Amino acid sequence: MTDHILKKVDRDEALTPDKIRYLLELSDEKELQALYDCAYRVKAKYVGKVAYFRGIIECSNICIKDCYYCGIRKSNRNVKRFQMDEEEMVREAIWAFENEYGSVVIQSGERQDAAYIELIERVLRQIKAATDGKLGVTLSLGEQTEETYRRGREAGAHRYLLRIETTNPELYKKLHPADHDFEARKNCLALLKKTGYQVGTGVLMGLPGQTTDDLVNDILFMKDLDIDMVGMGPYIPHRDTPMGQAIPPYTDEQKQAALTLGLKMIAVTRIVLKDVNIAAATALQALEHSGREMGLKCGANVIMPNVTETEFRPNYVLYDNKPCLDENSSMCRGCLTRRIQSIGETIGFNQWGDSKHYEKRTT
Ligand code: 5AD
Ligand code: FES
Fold first, then answer.
1. For residue 12, what are the contacts with CB-CB under 8 A and spacing of at least 6?
2. Does any ligand 1 atom lie closer than 6 A to the CB of residue 283?
3. CATH classification at residue 352
């Protein structure tokens, strides 16, 4: 059966939800390898064997939201809150530019106050001015108004990441307090498209109570929404969160299972969505040293090296075991470059590496 389905993929035939579910349920080592190899062929054909770097600037851990799974949720009193100043953010972006990263991602906890929106706007304009418009900038700042999204776009950001987290509204409710509204989040994705961003979304995998059918629906949701980029990763408990406290830390077996599920989702998403950009989430590396390279081998084509100043890193911990907390940006650059070259891929230095899907849907 696996062989039969993968041959369909090689012939570019669409898969039914049942076949998508079948692939997500694979557990036999050989069959899994066949799935990963097939996804890699699809990646090579549609987006090439190039890994694009996006330097991630984690500019603030202040957050008005209280998601039950996230380490920087507002109720977590053990977090030392920080907010980088303008100069620091611009400095990190310029570091990324000078180190040949084609683009950066500015990410933070969610804040909607005017002072913060204005700060981001100023930073965007300064980055654009300092790099002659050459450094691509992605925002990942959560749910905002249409007006805020528009201002970000006008100040120079061209991509936006907003994970839907799960597309099952019932599960969404269990992961969030009552005032975190699934429909509002979904609407934000529509607003991002409307305001002209390349839009990325994604989900958490391996959540308590999540079924394979949920994951099938997650993939179909991303396809139906015609999204350009995917950023998704395994859920990893954080000890200072309600969800993390309800379950003991992962055993080695649980880590392995979470990793396999993460890789399967990347592979099947590549097979179904084909020409989108897919990031190998840092969370994969929290489960296994070479997790991010494994992600690339299963169909991902984007890596987000951390370019945040080392002093801030220990305060931006969304899940336990987050890698690279003691490293600096140069170390991560060297480390990831070696890791990627070791699997025979090239790095798309100095390129924006826009989603081929976006190019197609807009020309
Ligand atoms: N495990 C894995 N990913 C997490 N995120 C937040 N908390 C966790 C966790 N415990 C992810 C969310 C968010 C992204 C920035 O980090 O999916 O969208
Ligand atoms: Fe940061 Fe390897 S990616 S040290």
1. none
2. yes
3. 3.20.20.70
Say which ligand is closest to the CA of 328: 2
Please tell me the distance between residue 147's alpha carbon and the centre of ligand 2 in angstroms. Answer: 36
Ligand 1 contacts CB of residue 163 (under 6 A): yes
361 pLDDT tier (thresholds 50, 70, 90): confident
Q: Is the pTM of this model over 0.85?
A: yes
Rounded Cα gap, residues 105 and 107, in angstroms: 6
Distance 331 CA to ligand 2 centre (A): 6
Domain span holding position 25: 2-361
Q: Which atom of ligand 1 is nearest to the CA of 241?
A: 10
| Average pLDDT for the chain | 97
- Please give the tally of structural domains in the chain: 1
